[in-house]
Amino acid sequence: MSKPRVAIIGAGASGLTSIKQCIADNIEPVCFEASSTTAGLWRFTEVTEDNKDPHSSIYKSVIINTSKEMSTFSDFPIPPDWPYYMHNKFVAKYFDMYAERFQLIPHIKFNTTVLNASILPDKRWKVRYVTKGEEETESVFDYVMVCTGHHRYPRMPKYKGMEQFKGNQIHSHFYREPTNYKDKRVVVVGCGNSAMDISVELSEVASQVYICVRRGTLPWILPRLAKGKPVDHFGSRFFVNWLPRFIQNYMTKTMSKTIVGLPPAGLEPKIEPSSCHPTMKTNFYERISTGTLIVKPNITQLNEDGSIEFVDGTKIEDIDAVIYATGYQIEFPFLDREIVCDKEVLEEFEEEYRENLVWLYKRMFPPKYPNIAFIGLVQLIGAIFPLSEMQARYVTSLINGYVPSHPPIPEMHKEIRKRQEFLQKIFYNAARHTIEGFFFSELDYLAKDLGCYPYPLQIIRRFGLSLYWKILFGIPNSIQYRLLGRQSWDGAADAIRVYNDCEPSKIKRS
Ligand SMILES: NC(=O)C1=CN([C@@H]2O[C@H](COP(=O)(O)OP(=O)(O)OC[C@H]3O[C@@H](n4cnc5c(N)ncnc54)[C@H](OP(=O)(O)O)[C@@H]3O)[C@@H](O)[C@H]2O)C=CC1
Question: Per its UniProt record, what PANTHER family does this chain match (predicted)?
Answer without folding.
Answer: DIMETHYLANILINE MONOOXYGENASE
